[in-house]
Amino acid sequence: MKTILNIIWLVLSGFWLFLGYLAAGLLLCITIIGIPFGIAAFRIGVYALWPFGYTTVERRDAGAPSCVGNVLWLVLAGWWLALGHIVTGFMLCLTIIGIPLGIANFKLIPVSLLPLGREIVRTDQSFTAGGPGQGTGW
């Protein structure tokens, strides 16, 4: 089922969202200070390209720099990307078959607003904080 949803997602919204993240990442990588933000945009862009079967978890080792970075990200690119998810989500929810895809778009909004300090993992690894072998996350 994940594969079917990912293929429909790719055709209806994933490719266009990926292009938005790619553009944001390229613009942010123009300056040396923006390179970490550009890398985050590329990482989330790949997640937005093929989201079903993956989720995000908070990294326990993320500290104050990721908090400051998230504020800068929100101002520079986050709200534009979140707006893209909102518009796409509403458009997809206009049809019955698009409702699960619209909901997936709405779930991507928090990641598009505050991406630093988060890690994208497979859904079967989502309860292990920091990846395999790092604990139970409870």
Description of the molecule:
By secondary structure, this protein is mainly alpha-helical. It has a two-stranded antiparallel sheet. It is globular. The two termini are 29 Å apart.
Q: What's the SSE blueprint?
A:
Layout (H helix, E strand, L loop, with lengths): L1 H27 L6 H15 L4 E5 L5 H29 L6 H9 L1 H5 L4 E5 L16
Helix pairs in contact: 1-2, 1-3, 3-4
Could you tell me the strand content as a percent range? 5-15%
The rounded Rg comes to 15 Å
Poorly predicted parts: none
What is the CA-CA span between the terminal residues? 29 Å
SS element count, helices: 5
Alpha-beta content class: mainly alpha
Number of strands: 2
Major β-sheet strand ordering: 1-2
Mean pLDDT: 83
Helical amount: 55-70%
What pattern of helices and strands is seen along the backbone? HHEHHHE
Features:
mainly alpha, globular
Can you give me a brief rundown of this structure?
The protein is mainly alpha-helical and 138 residues long. It has five helices and two strands; from the N terminus they run H-H-E-H-H-H-E.
